[in-house]
Predict the 3D structure of the following.
Amino acid sequence: MRKFLLRCSILVSVVSLICVFIIHYDTYNIFHWNNIRFTSAEPNKNFVKTKYIIQNPNKFNAYILGSSRIGNIPPALLPSQKDGKKLNWYNMTYSMGLPSEHLLTLETFLKNGVSIDMVILGFDDIAMYSSIEEHYNQLLRMPYQVFENNKIAFLKPYFMSLPAVSIIKEVTTYDPSEHKANHNSFYDFGVYQNNLSYNLGMEAQSFPSAHQGVTYTQIDSYKDIENIYKLCKEKNIHLILLTNPIYVTTYIDSIQDGYLDFLRKVAQNCEFYNFSTLNNYCQDSRYYFEGSHYRPALGLIVEKVLFGTEDEQNEIRKKAGDELFGVKVNSENIDFIISELEKQLQKYKKELRLN
């Protein structure tokens, strides 16, 4: 009996030490959501940001939702008030964020008494080929709602995954003072410091497509967007829907997998601003980090179209070489818009062949 109790005691001690070890090094910042560490491993931002907002329900009342692409919408030109009420913005962007997850986020906020007066939701081809079911099995992307519904089910896979040696080294030598700017930026607005720089890329180049192909042909993410639209209308939340400006190679591959059909479905019941066109910006790699993420400089241009004067909008469309850039789309004009986008593509392919 004594030997059995001794063995149990040793086992408990070992398991406890392992748990303490994992909590301390915490690759995805699950246990350090209110004081994340900036290492080479990306935090589970869905969990971290949702938890942070719920714990501070009145700190913000305006939110940007979308995948990491819309993380490069800067705060510079966002509206500072709505109907006389001050707006405090937070960017909820996280890796591969999906409309189904954004719907859950808004529902979770409302259930927990979080203030919401305005929402900007960006979407694109990612909504076509990625499924929330995939994210349930990914430590980087497991939705906060799993934690809310079953804490053991959420935490178990994190305790089953030991941190990499590289992360252990980074955490061991971590100096918070070296990351103060990123820390402040993350908790003040939801992005890292480099997401606020308007510098363009050094030189033009050609990025390969970042479109991953449609792996779930039955994903009806347009319905999630519709449900977000309905929820915001019901709760008197001002909603702005927009498509992200997609880099040319990614955009073309997306169209081949049905992106324009996807936009047509969204437009049947929702109105949105469409920045997914073959414009001069999306063909200029200097406005992109790679084939997926546009730079804050282009995010600023998007903001000018959304919130600028008519003269500013006209000037931007002139520079874009495209009158459709940022145009408002709905059920009444979607057929015309798609027809024009198809003409753009045909012209672009023809010019490529000639060159």
